[in-house]
Amino acid sequence: MSKTSHRPDVKFWRDPDLPGVEIRYSRYTTVCFPKHTHDCYSVAIVEEGTNTAFLRDSTVAMTAGDLIVIHPGEVHACNPLQDSGWTYRMFYIDAEILEAAALDVFESGLETPEFPEPVFRDDELSQALVGLNEAIEQGADALEKESRLLDACAMLLSRHAQAILPEARPQGDSEATGLIRKRLEADPTATVKLEELAALTGLSRYAALRTFQREEGLSPHAYQTQLRIAQAKRLMRDGASIVDAALATGYSDQSHFSNAFKQVTGATPRQYRLSRP
């Protein structure tokens, strides 16, 4: 009897006619992701299987046909149930795209779309998103792809989002968390120690660590790793080799880079770089 392969099946699509959009198709049979964030909106369609999603400090179950929407910077982790597997199609959409679509949909100068219910069912929206993916894969003309993207965004926003005024946004994190985030984002490849973060914030090392982790949902190290991998992805999208992307983001050890990349993205650097542009 043949054994079921546990090798993940991952494919990416990127299209020069749709900057700010990336699509991935993934099939996993084992737990793959720790808690993490994305710097864009993430919209996933569960196509097969059952999985759990940690989101907004709670865990929910999702099955085939469900959609999930994750805000930029929102800590989450989605993984298959034990001894199960799941297939999903994820659409990463830059915030600027949804904000521009929100202005069209709400016609009132509102922005910052938010989704009060992160998990829901909407077959028509799922079909629209899959249609967008197919248009990209088949090399449709720019007008069709742009139209499909706007239609899908409008459907998502008009049915499932609320928009808030900039002045109505929730109060941000503490000054200490902001200072640490700014330091890490200024140079993600830099070697940063807790002593530096403590001196920067005026807190003890433990207080600086705990404050950031409580408010950001990730440790400073995990946040820095995400920044490095995001930079490596941009470099590879622009044509950099895996070795050059690793070195440019502070990874002199290729094995270390590959492990970090897979932990954050669920794919190997080679799978990501060889995916269709």
From TrEMBL:
Keyword Repeat among record annotations: no
Xref: Pfam families: AraC_binding, HTH_18
Family annotation (Gene3D superfamilies): Homeodomain-like, Jelly Rolls
Entry keywords, A to Z: Activator, DNA-binding, Transcription, Transcription regulation
Domain of life: Bacteria
Residues in HTH araC/xylS-type domain copies: 174-275
Keyword Membrane: no
SMART domains cross-referenced by the UniProt entry: HTH_ARAC
PANTHER family linked: HTH-TYPE TRANSCRIPTIONAL ACTIVATOR RHAS-RELATED (PTHR46796), TRANSCRIPTIONAL REGULATORY PROTEIN (PTHR46796:SF2)
Protein name: Helix-turn-helix-domain containing protein AraC type
Record organism: Desulfovibrio ferrophilus
